[in-house]
Known about the structure:
By secondary structure, the chain is of the alpha+beta class. It is about 35% helix and about 25% strand. The chain has helices at about 85-100, 130-140, 145-160, 180-185, 190-195, 205-220, 270-280, 285-295, 295-300, 305-315, 320-340, 350-355, 360-370, 380, 405-415, and strands at about 5-10, 15-20, 25-35, 35-45, 65, 75-80, 110-115, 125, 165-170, 225-230, 235-240, 245-250, 345-350, 390, 400. The chain is globular and about 55 Å long.
Amino acid sequence: MAKTMAVNAGSSSLKFQLLDMPAERVIAQGVIERIGMDDAIVTIKYGVPIASENAVDHLEDDEHITLSKDGKGKKYENVLAIKDHQQAINFMLQKLTDLGIIADFNEITGVGHRVVAGGEWFNHSVVVTDDVLTKIDRLADYAPLHNPANAMGIRAFQKLLPHALSVAVFDTSFHQTMPEENYLYSLPYEYYTRYGARKYGAHGTSHRYVSARATQLLGKDLKDLKLITLHLGAGASITAVQGGKSIDTSMGFSPLAGLTMATRSGDVDTSLVYYIQEREGLSNEEMTNILNKKSGLLGISTISSDMRDLLDVQDTHDHAKLAVNIFVNRVVKYVGQYVAEMGGVDAIVFTAGIGENSIPVRKMIVDKLGYFGITLDEEANNVRGDEVEISTKDSRVKALLIPTNEELMIARDVEALK
Length: 418
């Protein structure tokens, strides 16, 4: 039985999902965190019964296998030293074999890799060649926190699974349909022609999935719809989707721009950045680190980058409440902008960690958007992670909750290129 693996490699993590394609059945999924450290954490969730008679019948001291609450699956956990991505992938594949999830590596016939920045070179997913890898490396300046790790993951998998089709799926490709007036900055045009200085966006695979899924829920053709998709998580972006195409998006040249995020600042006046940098005596690298890792919800609240923590204490912690309000404020601003750009909207779609699970944040956003004909159904909104319409039946503009599935989109793109 042929299987496809969808991979998201971060600088110190590796997320994966193994699917039976084209049936689109999830066989296993997992994550290896803290790669490069002595206490890396491995978690693999998989179905039962175990697929192979050769499955592991004994565990090391730090290994644990538990049955899921519904009795339909198992979870493997381990803590061990993992020095790099190559070792992480090797361990993960071997463990899939040990647990009986696969009989041998040859069952995996395709591997799809999430790559954040594809620049203008890639407006669709492609089979990985030496030229493609070289371009991913050259685009590292566009996504310095992501592209190098993505390329590292591709090379590591190619070494261990040379027989499998390797496919790169770019976060930016969905946004290559934006018109010039939306993707160009008001800078000397030569900077665009010389250096590719423009808006590229991100989270395109997620926006592509939920916008397509929204059409099925609404029972309308994608080409007839004006949608605004809200990917609200630790990284957050909003996209205006008209006729099935991205016409504008909140992230910019890099994933730093746009909304207030968990630790990323979002939009900031560049002059203010230089002002702070000079007075604090910060290098460019130090300032970039502050904007990416010490700002956003964490920077404003002073206590946490996690929206759940802030909501828990917002009634007694002024900075936590302020951070929540700023997050909602920026979302509402971008939605309003995109409604104006498209000359209306048929539906807004919530997805990703906050969008899928934060009942109060969805309520705050929808309540502020009531002016253009959207009304929240409080009972329908009282869910986490379900696919559901959360607006009232008579709401002129619909609000949908659609859990994203980037891994499925990646697997589908692999299948399409086989």
